[in-house]
Amino acid sequence: MKYLQGIVLFSTCLCAGLVFTFLSGCESGEAPTQTTENSPEGTSTAAVDPQTGDPADVEELPPWIGRWMLVITEETTDFHPLLIQIAEKDGKKGVRQVDTASMQQFQSWHVNQAVFRDENILLNIETGQVTLNFEGQRHGDVILGGIFPKGEVQVSPARLIKTSSTSMSDVETPQITDGTKDLEAALKSGDRMEALKKFVEANPDLPLVNTAYFTLLDTAIKNDLPVEEVDAIAAGAIQSAQRWGSNLLPDTLFQIAQLTKDSSKYRSIARSSLDKVKSLVGENMPEVYQQRLDLFESQYLLSSAEAEEQQQGAEELRSLLEKRPFEINGWVSLASHYEDAGDKDKAVDIYARLAVLPGLNRMVQIPTDTEGQTQSPLEKTKALSSLEGEALQEKLDQSYEENAFYFVNKSDEKPNLPENRRVPLIELFTGSACPPCVAGDLALGGLEKTFPAPELIAVRYHQHIPRPDPLTTSDGEARFGYYGEGGTPTMRVNGRPSDPVGGFVFHAEDHYKNLESQARGLLSMTSPISIDLKASAEGDSLKIDVNVVGVSENRNAVKLRVLIVDPLVHFVAPNGIRLHEMVVRDIPTGADGVAIKGTSGTYNTTRNVTELKKEVLDEIAAFQENRNFKFDVVPDDFSKLRVVAFVQDDSSQEVLQSAISPVIEFGKATAAEEKPAE
Length: 678
Known about the structure:
Elements: H1 5-8, H2 17-20, E1 43-45, E2 66-74, E3 77-89, E4 92-100, E5 110-117, E6 120-126, E7 131-139, E8 142-149, E9 156-163, E10 175-176, H3 180-188, H4 192-202, H5 208-222, H6 227-243, H7 249-260, H8 267-281, H9 287-302, H10 307-323, H11 328-340, H12 344-356, H13 360-363, E11 366-367, E12 374-375, H14 377-384, H15 389-403, E13 425-430, H16 437-450, E14 457-462, H17 474-483, E15 490-493, E16 496-497, H18 508-522, E17 530-538, E18 541-549, E19 558-570, E20 579-586, E21 594-595, E22 601-608, H19 609-627, E23 633-635, E24 640-649, E25 654-660, E26 664-665, E27 674-676
Helix pairs in contact: 3-4, 4-5, 5-6, 5-7, 6-7, 7-8, 7-9, 8-9, 9-10, 9-11, 10-11, 11-12, 12-14, 12-15, 16-18
């Protein structure tokens, strides 16, 4: 779980349904019931003596009593949000919050409820963003357990460590997790197996012991040790997870299955682990557990010696992956199966898919037969494919089109558009070197497939953010400045700020759904303003005529703006976007626009496309010289263009009406798609 990564960014959350019952009925202000089926017998209290915060006369304190520091571990980083005191009064234990960490992100954290049973404690913690549940078991002066947002299914290791501290003022957080250096030394040891065994034996109370066990198991498998030895290591990992409470156990079992399921030699260990998950979690299995179980079951079949079982596993896995497109391990397993079976075309299709989805080619590393070496999906695609050069690029482009917009609603139903409708204009400020711009670019591209122009109009202004971008123009930068924006991606819908659209490839679907719902409402809006836009090719020139009527006399800050856009730029950008739709190349009216006086206005211009192209390339060349920077590629195909015209009230920045021309084609003066930078 990474809900503390980036310091308390609750982006993903986890928790096992079987342990959620401990705090069932323990909502704010309500004491947990001791006799219901879903709540264990035990004692539960609010804070002891909340007026003074002090426990009353306690003598010969039991082992529980004292101050405890909450420590949450994310990978190799420890966070220390709370200091609590456990006291006993009238035979019941209680918890008082002593202090919180000085970091602003932890200031709103407070313990809401506590439940004790035998050697276990459960805490309900409000953070101001989510409710966290901690469940732990006491082992002397440390309580080992896990913490998880309420209602979720995975867990981070967490500890309560007994301390003499009376405040958090002298506690530095975050810190490197205890044992990190020792584990690193074990991993670098000449005898890694022996060093890791010593580490797990010496550090049963450190959260990194789980990581050490998984590395030990992986090393044993790669060393082809006997099944009995590997099984013993797996049993040690399970026993270690149990020491930390039941929350970590399902994830540990899944990890063991992950490491052993693809091997015919060790697949019996995978089978045993998956069966234990089923037994442990029971019939009411959380959906995320069921999804992982389904994935592993189909991968398990692929490692069978029986061809029939292999085929069944491939079919089940393919069906599952169509619904869950970012199960990367599943795709790699399926591609490896096809490759081993001699079906290179199917393997290439999968590797190409992983190569072109923005960001995945860098993330995914596929093991090779050479120890310690991996290949990227693109390298695998090139190695297996019979295609080369332009033919291979065409295949990759096709794969991008087929897979990058998997979330688009495919429906023949057309929206009901009123005659005097207001055509929506969506403006995206993006950057080809901007990783979090990927989600916005893909979401908007998907929206254009659902509502193609002129149902709605979408344009993109590229910016030199965070690094230089060869699709950026000074006009586009001026438009960015008009809105006073500071970062990419930023989207405006009819001139109004939209919800954030940042993120990576797997965030695009949610942004698309939000935009699609919003767009359906916009398509039914009407406007008294109409724009008559005519654009045509006259030799090597683009002739533009715009007439606007119907502007209200009460508006005195209305401007007409005209854009020349490239409908599709082929450019494999640093952030992984291959095809860039509706890129603004020029603003003939200037970013300030042309004022409309009264209720109507006109605008006419002719732009020589060869001259326009030269202006754009000269500006890029000047930028490179001034910044001492050189683009690898400068897209320069101006053979197809569209014109967009829109009316905007500068007093409110609201776009009142928009129009777009059909695609206008010109002869190609140079080689088409991508020109190396001068």
